[in-house]
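From the pipeline queue, job 12 of 40. The input is one protein chain; the requested action is below.

Action: predict structure.
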Amino acid sequence: MRTFTYKVPSSIREATSDFGQNSEFAAGGTTLIDLMKLEVMTPSQLVDINRLPMRGIELASDGLRIGALEKMSDVAEHPEVAANYPVISQALLKSASPQLRNMASMGGNLLQRTRCGYFRDVSTPCNKRQPGSGCPAIDGWNRAPALLGTSSACVATHPSDLAVALVALDASILLQSENNNRLMKLDDFYQVPGETPDKENQLRPGELITEIRVPRLLWARRSAYLKIRDRESYEFALASVAVALDVDANMFEMLESPLEGWAQTVESSESAGRTNRQAVEPTDFRSCCEARGQRCQAIKTQCIQS
C-alpha cells in the first residue's frame, strides 16, 4: 500500500472542501482498503467521514430515510425496515458476511466497485481502471460476465444487492457537495459503460451520498429479494431479483423487478414496471411463483455455463 495523508473533518462542508485531486472518502473501508492493498486504487489522501452527521433511520409519513453512514447490519435488523421494506432487509442480509455488514456503510455499498478479476489484477489491462487499455474479460477466462448493458469496452457486472432492492422501490439518494445539494433517483445514478466504463455513476468530484430516501409504499410490505449464488454465505450473485406485489382484494399489479449479477448496472427485466391491473385467483399466485422459480433456475444455469 502506498503512503497517503489522512484527514478527519467534522462537517460535510469541511469534508467536501478538503476533497482534493486523487482523494477518496472513507467510511467503513471494506472495499476501498482492499483495493488500496491491491493498488487498484492509489489515493494520495483519505478523508474519513465517520464523524459527519449522516446517520439515522426514520420512517415518516412520506417514507423511509436512511443516513448514508448507517451500517448495513443496523439497517437490515431495524424493525421498521424489516416490517415495511422486507426487500431491503433481505438484500442486506444476503450481502457479504456479518463482520463486513457490521463495518460497511449504506452509502459505501452503493458505490462499491465490480468484482471482475481483471479489474482487481493490476498486471492486466482494464478499461475501468485504465481507460483505453482494453478489456481482457471479453475474450479471456471469465466465468460470470455481464449479459445485459455490456459494450465493446467492458463486460463487468454490478456488485450491489442493496441497489437492486432500492431501484425496485424507486428510491432516491441525496448528493451533497461544498456548495450544492441534489436529489437523484438511484435508477438514474448508475451509468452503462459505453465507451467510458471508468465512469460508473453520476457522482461528481468532492460529492457525497449523504442520505437514502425510499417513498412510503404500502405494497413494499409484500416485497422480497431472491439471490442465486454458488453458496449461501459471503458470495456475490450469479443473478438476483427484487420483486413486489400491489394487491387490493383480488386485483394485483406486479412492480419493478430489477436484475443484478448478470448486468453492468441494476438492470430492469423485460417485465419491469407495473403490469396492467388485473383480477387474480390464488392459483394464479402459485403459477406465478412457479414460473419465476423456473426462470431464476434458467438464469443460474446460463450464468454457470457462461
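Job complete. DSSP finds ten helices and 14 strands in the chain.
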